[in-house]
Amino acid sequence: MILLTGGTGYIGSHIAVELLDAGHQVVILDNLSNSVCTVVDRIKTISQKEVEFYKGDVRDAALLGVIFKAHNIKAVIHCAGLKAVGESVSNPLAYYDANVYGSISLCKAMEQAGVKRLIFSSSATVYGHEAEPPYMETMARGSASSPYGASKAMIEKVLEDLSSSDPQWSFSILRYFNPIGAHPSGYIGESPQGIPNNLMPYISQVAAGVLPELLIYGNDYPTDDGTCVRDYLHVVDLAVGHRMALQTLEQPGVHYYNLGAGKGVSVQEMVDAFILATGVDVPYRFAPRRKGDLAAFWASSEKAERELGWRTRKSLVDMMVDTWRWQQFTSSENS
Ligand code: NAD
Ligand code: UDP
Fold first, then answer.
1. CA angle, 52 as apex, 55 and 260 as ends, to 5°?
2. Across the beta sheet with 26-30, what order do the strands follow?
C-alpha cells in the first residue's frame, strides 16, 4: 500500500492511475485546497480499481496516525503542497507552513509508524538563477527566486539531514521540469483556479475562448526566437517516473533525479505546436518580460535514464492533443 499525499491534484491524480494500473494499492490524503473530490471517482473510472481517500491535511498529526494505523503502508509519495510562485511571494508564511512544516509533520508520522521510504515532489527551481543548462543532479542548489522555491530547497535539506541522522531512511527527490498535458482519457488534468499563471493552461483557455488572448512574456531573450525556453514533459511520463523511482527506495540514502524531457522548447514553438496539433487558433501578442523568468533551462535526463530506465515517451503533439481534450471536457462540464 502506498500513501499518496496531494493525490487528487494535477500530478498526484496521474500518479494514482499509474500506480493502480501497475497493481499497487493506493491511499490518498488531500485537503482539497486545490482540487475536488470527484477526482477520486475519475481515478477509479480510469483504472477500474478501488482507491482509499482521506480528506485531510498533512499537518494533521492525529489523522496521519490513524492512516498509518489503518493501512499497511510501505512507502509514501508526497505531492501535497502549495505551488503558485507569485502567491508564495505575497503569502510566504502559508507556503512555508504547508510545504516545509507539512513535510516535517509527514516525516514525523512516518518515523512513528516505522515507514522510512519517501518520494518527494521537488522542482527544477532548486537549481536557482545561477545554474547553466542542462541542469544536472550533481549541481548544488542555487539561490531561490521565491518562497515557493525556497520551500522546496528547505525540504530537500530536511530530508538530507534526516537521512544523515538515521541511515534507515530512503528518499527519492524528484525534480520536475515543466509537466503539461493530461490523461489521454480526458477525465483528469490540470484545473487552475482563476486565471492561470502557467503557459499551457493559458494557451488552452485562450483556444477555448475562455480568455481573449495569450501574452507572450518577452521576445528579446537570448534564445533562437527571442522567447523563453523550458523543458516540457507529459504528466503521464512524469507519473511513470514516480512508479519507476519506487525501486530506488530499496537503497537507503537520498537519491536525486531530474524528470524532464532533456530538451528545451520556446514559448513561440509551444504556441505554434498547439495550433498545428489541434487546428485551433490561439490569438497572442508579445508583452514585456515577466519578472523573475529565466531565459532558458532544461534538464539533463541522463541519470534517470541510466538508473531508473526512465525517459519521456510522449511527444509535443501528445501533450497538445491531450491538453486540448481535457480543456474541452472541462469546458463541457462547466457549461
Ligand atoms: P496541485 O495543486 O494540483 O496538487 C497538490 C494537491 O495537494 C492539491 O490537490 C491540494 O489540494 C493538495 N494539498 C495542498 N496542501 C495540502 C496539505 N497541507 N495537506 C493535504 N493536501 C494538500 O499541484 P500539482 O501541480 O499536482 O503539484 C504537485 C506537487 O508537485 C507540488 O508539491 C508541487 O509543488 C510540485 N511541482 C509541481 C510542478 C508543476 O508544474 N505542476 C512543478 C514542480 C513541482
Ligand atoms: N508564459 C507566457 N505567457 C503566459 C504564461 C507563461 O509567455 O501567460 C511564459 C513564461 O514567461 C515562461 C514560459 O511561458 O517563459 C513558461 O511559464 P510557466 O509559468 O508555465 O513555467 P515556469 O516559468 O515556471 O517554468
1. 85
2. 52-55, 26-30, 2-5, 75-78, 117-123, 170-176, 253-259
Q: What is the pLDDT of residues 79-115, one digit of tens each?
A: 999 999 989 999 999 999 999 999 999 999 999 999 9
CATH number of this structure's domain 2-180+233-260, picked from the four choices 3.40.50.300, 3.40.50.720, 3.50.30.60, 2.60.40.1180: 3.40.50.720
From the CA of 266, the nearest ligand is 2
Continuous segment of H or E residues that includes residue 85: helix 85-90
HSE-CB at 323 with a 13 A cutoff on CA atoms is: 33
What is the Å distance from ligand 2's center to 183 Cα? 22
**Ligand having the closest approach to the CA of 267:** 2
Strand (E) or helix (H) holding 285: strand 284-287
CB 217 near ligand 2, within 6 Å: yes
Q: What is the pTM of this model?
A: 0.98
How far is residue 267's CA from residue 264's CA, in Å, rounded to a whole number?
A: 10
Q: 9 CA to middle of ligand 2, Å?
A: 20
Q: Is 148 a catalytic residue?
A: yes
Ligand 1 near 6 CB (within 6 A): yes
- Residue 262 C-alpha cell reads as 532533456
Nearest Cα neighbor of 2 from 58, 75, 71, 54 is 75
CA–CA separation, 188 and 20 (whole Å): 15
